[in-house]
């Protein structure tokens, strides 16, 4: 009867290999240690400190008393804050959907191997390279009824032309959306264009053989393949919506009245102008919860769930 050889693991060799791996990783670990400390102390520490202050009665200077949810009750009874939430919801829906649609259309256009593709790519992506402050100042001038588009059209011989959205309380928030679309559509275009360039040519050949219309191919075949890129673009755009501040300040200063007030401006005003630290940090905590609620599902779908499948 044949015997099956049994291999005895070499414990000494495995221990030596483990020690060598640890020695190789130690320099990298020491190099990353300062960054890890900065993340823990500055970022996480400041977030926890902000949350803690939101449960106090701090005004000009921080206090360590405890008032429970009193600041949150005041916050959700504040008309200015509720207006800012309504404005950020309008901006977010129109901005994200508009950037995804416009960015996809621009990506499809460039993907047709048009002449001067590099020029078009640069032109469409260039606004994203500019800061929101520069974007806001440029659009504030362009939409100013006495200086920009309205005056230009009237000087061309159309004296009854009116485009005064930026000074109209009912329409001012939509001027912020227009400027945001001009700024953010290029980023979406770049992300989706990278996905389009990865679509297999055989899919297009098969669709042509079957006589499927081009628009149907994009809607039913290409878009599902671009789902990871669409999710990534949506997450980036959503975080930009939550922290919207400089574009509003550069264009309207939150006006006319509070027509374009947003939560980030509400926070800054209460922290540095109204000397109400507790109410400002309560608003910042609400914004933090909004960001985490967006990022957590994305992180889970992107990193946690794939590891669970492999396990």
Automatic annotation (TrEMBL):
Q: What residues does the ABC transmembrane type-1 domain cover?
A: 85-300
InterPro entries, from UniProt?
ABC_transporter_permease, MetI-like, MetI-like_sf
Biological process, per Gene Ontology: transmembrane transport
Its GO CC terms are: plasma membrane
Per UniProt, the keywords (alphabetical) are: Cell membrane, Membrane, Transmembrane, Transmembrane helix, Transport
TM spans (from-to): 29-51, 88-110, 122-142, 171-196, 217-242, 277-300
Give the location in the cell: Cell membrane
- An example of a Pfam family matching this protein is BPD_transp_1
Report the sequence similarity comment from the record: Belongs to the binding-protein-dependent transport system permease family.
Which named protein is this?
Sugar ABC transporter permease
